[in-house]
User: Fold this.
Amino acid sequence: MTAEVRPTQVSTTAADEAPRSRIRSRWLTYLAIAGPGIIAANAGNDAGGIITYASAGAQFGYRTLFFMLLVTVGLVVVQEMCARLGTFTGKGLAALIREEFSIRLASFALFFLVVANVGLVVSEFAGIGAALELLGVSKFISVPIAALSIWALVIFGSYRYAERLFLILSLVFLTYPIAALLGRPAWGTVTTNLVLPHFIASKSFILLGVALIGTTITPYMQLYVAAAVADKGLGPEEYRFEQADAISGAIFGNVISCFIIIATGSALGHIGRPLGSARDAAAALGPVAGSLSVDLFALGLFGAAMLAGAVVPLSTAYAVSEALGVERSVSRRFTEAPLFLTLFSAQILVGAVVALAPGNLVALLLGTQTLNGLITPIILVFILVLANRRSVLGDAVNGPVFRVVATIAVGAVAAMAMILVGQTVLGWFGVA
Assistant:
């Protein structure tokens, strides 16, 4: 009898362990593949993003939360398409645009991308300086050290090493939920503004809306995702894990964005105007959430700017190198990828030098994000067309439902950008 029972017990134990083993294996595979989507989405919460979200909270309280919910849907759709293009083609967006469209269109998109990205690199180093000045460190010390650290990480490291450090830097964003909780917001009002639209028919609200799009669905994020997936060597067999990485990264990044709005909305929602400086944003949190929240704001701003200070110039270097068809990889040496690493180095140098010049940080950051809001529709149209082409993705092409959702998302972003352009032109003639 005993001999007959033991096999049954062993079989039952094995049956219980099998699902656990599969789940464990899937998690380990996901953790090994995760990176491009999470890094890109968190890099979107860069220095410009944080100041833009903080300005949204200061100027309009919680009113932009529902708008951010809509933007999150758009970001998930866009990031998923970019991850899919990278895994199924093994190429970055710039390479695909060069191959599938005319050289003129590719050059047009690339030119504006480089202009916007150079402005962003400057803003990231300006953000690093502003963050550490809140903690008592001069920007003339912090910016050069940060620039040298970022440069050395990419030049002397490999993609795997750089990615791990980028993921560690992403943990700094957890400071913002803590700062929001310390601010003791009115959660009932927060929830109402999150699930119901509270838009304002004003030029300032629309301008801020475009800036929020520009800093949330940013061209460099999309270029980085596809290029990093290709650089990492991920293929169709890893797609479902990279898809999870892209979607979870987009959601996490925008949850953090909402917490930034909530934190500053709790403290500054009554002032009804944009912020004057990063110091104003951090210092104003003090009376509501205590001195700890000021330190948390500064720490979050520093970590975000450091992450984006590496990702933004990398995305530019990837894009230009892909468009020209030359070697591009973080794992290559100068002799193997001279253009790629030279472009990266030049952007770091220019960004750090210009960031040390006197000027209005907030005006620079908001202006750069608005410029990105105008450029984003161009890149998104390319992404949408590429993801719809069976000649590019084969059976992984956008399905009917996804195609409709993606088209609506891209159309909405383009409409916001056109409204801003229209209002700007009318303003030149004193009409708006």
Q: What stands out?
A: Residues 168 and 307 are 10 Å apart (CA to CA).
